[in-house]
Design a protein that fits this description.
Elements (H helix, E strand, L loop, with lengths): L2 H20 L10 H20 L8 E7 L4 H14 L16 E6 L10 H10 L30 H7 L3 E9 L3 H7 L15 H5 L5 H7 L6 E5 L30 H7 L7 E4 L2 H6 L7 E5 L19 H12 L6 E7 L2 H6 L3 H21 L5 E7 L2 E2 L1 E3 L27 E6 L4 E2 L2 E2 L16 E4 L5 E2 L3 E6 L9 E3 L3 H9 L24 H12 L1
Parallel strand pairs: 1-7, 1-8, 2-17, 3-4, 3-7, 4-6, 5-6, 11-14
Antiparallel strand pairs: 2-16, 8-16, 9-15, 10-11, 12-13
Helix pairs in contact: 3-13, 4-6, 8-9, 11-13
The chain binds 2-acetamido-2-deoxy-beta-D-glucopyranose (5 copies) and zinc ion.
The site of one 2-acetamido-2-deoxy-beta-D-glucopyranose has 4 residues, from loops.
Amino acid sequence: MTSGEKTLKCLFLFLLLKVALTKVSFPDQEKNPKYWRDQAQASLKTALYLQDHLNTNVAKNIILFIGDGMSVATVTAARILKGQLNGKPGEETQLEMDKFPYMALSKTYNTDAQVPDSAGTATAYLCGVKANAGTVGVSAAALQGQCYTMRGNEVDSILNWAKQAGKSAGLVTTTRVTHATPSAAYAHSVDRSWYSDNDMPPEAIQQGCKDIAWQLVKNIPDIEVILGGGRKYMYPRNTPDVEYPWDWHANGTRLDGLNLTKIWMENKPRGQVARYVWNRNQLLALDPRKVDYVLGLFEPADMKFEQERKRSTDPSLSEMVQVAIQILQKNPKGFFLLVEAGRIDHGHHASMASQALHETVELDKTIALASRATREDDTLTVVTADHSHVFTFGGYTPRGNPMLGLVPGLSDIDFKPFTSIVYGNGPGFELVDGGRQNISFIDVFDMNYQAQSAVPLQSETHSGEDVAIFAKGPLAHLLHGVHEQNYIPHVMAYAACIGQNKDHCKPDAASNVSRPFTFNSTLLYILSVLSWL
Ligand SMILES: *[C@@H]1O[C@H](CO)[C@@H](O)[C@H](O)[C@H]1NC(C)=O
Ligand SMILES: *[C@@H]1O[C@H](CO)[C@@H](O)[C@H](O)[C@H]1NC(C)=O
Ligand SMILES: *[C@@H]1O[C@H](CO)[C@@H](O)[C@H](O)[C@H]1NC(C)=O
Ligand SMILES: *[C@@H]1O[C@H](CO)[C@@H](O)[C@H](O)[C@H]1NC(C)=O
Ligand SMILES: *[C@@H]1O[C@H](CO)[C@@H](O)[C@H](O)[C@H]1NC(C)=O
Ligand SMILES: [Zn+2]
């Protein structure tokens, strides 16, 4: 290319950008400095108020929301998408999680992995111990896939601690209930993929290891609420699925011939009402006042993406959580609830950003619902992710640029259009005539459109940077810096007076709860003396 041609193309690009930028519109009020000053002053007032009004109550309830793979970039993009779905430019929108007063960063690496997986991370934020990738509910002394390394290395989760304290417990996920995230709450398995005994190597069965579905029913039989997917791990091999009897991939898979939903029903305390449901209508027809236990399995494996759900019989995440909270709230001692938006991760792995972001918007809607159903003075709510993804968006897009859309202008190297959203690696890599695909006539808003990536991979990967922790409620301010991920359940347990660290909870010690965090003059004096020495 001659330099004349280059100049011409640059000029072309510049003009395109200029056209795009002059079309930008944003709310008129933003032109007024008073608008920004008032907004900042209101935030300042809130910050000053919070400083003097630490919530040092004991947390009766704990709700932990996990966006699987919900990186900071995913949160920002979901915020903009949510705003745009409401007809706004988007950037100024507040997610429900954005309103939480405290936040921190979580270091997500596994003991054996710089870029972690969902199993080792779930062990960290549920059991309080970092672990190897691919393992759930076991310490790092247990090796992935090696049954013989498990014995004696089991670690308990905050769900156990809550149960031991007489609280109710719930697990709600959009994946199979035996998936990595929920399973670390109740199972101990050196392999996250041992969903049923059919998924295990024979020597692991001989050595006495148990599959995760079996553990769901047997380890802690009195979990009040279990909602998600995963029917095919519960029934004997060749049992046709109730919803898809023609689909043999949905068949039951168990080799031991057990009917686990039957066992689940039978091992409930006498006189208690237990219900098994497998579709939305059955779930919504339950009277939470009259149900003590519910097991809902809405798909043979993972549930549908939110955008595809309306063509199925699946409930939404928010519908499941609504029922869960109504049942759990009946316990005067409170509850622990784990809610996972598990398919943000699956959308990203497929590079289908639209799916990942709509899952995140549904998670945020669910957080809002839970906020309305509980009170900040007795409920500690934590929202975080297990790990990040190699997902980002950029390209000097103007204000209000469609979140899933093209950057105005062309690449100044290959002169083709590009989307703002891109992945570092993944399946969206497609070479056409030796170059990047020209997406001019591709519908980039299609829910299954795969955004482009630099490195071709069948499945886009997780990434290793920190993820955010949002917190509100009793002692939420203990999540305040850059923390190891396994710190999270220690805070939740401390706030709720459950688990290993309860000395501050004796009735006459209630006023001591906040003391270690008060940076008063005595403490400052001691510190200054120490530094002087
Ligand atoms: C599924 O179950 C049906 C009915 O029992 C059986 O005929 C079929 O072989 C099974 N298919 C698979 C893949 O398990
Ligand atoms: C499992 O047990 C339940 C409850 O007894 C029963 O309704 C269901 O049909 C059983 N399913 C299979 C596949 O045996
Ligand atoms: C991309 O496709 C559009 C529409 O067919 C075409 O006008 C444009 O020239 C193509 N760009 C390149 C660099 O091939
Ligand atoms: C409260 O804290 C003080 C000072 O740290 C301690 O001496 C006291 O024993 C605590 N009270 C209780 C009941 O734990
Ligand atoms: C400072 O904290 C210590 C220990 O928590 C407490 O005993 C003391 O009364 C506090 N002093 C002031 C001035 O608040
Ligand atoms: Zn993943």
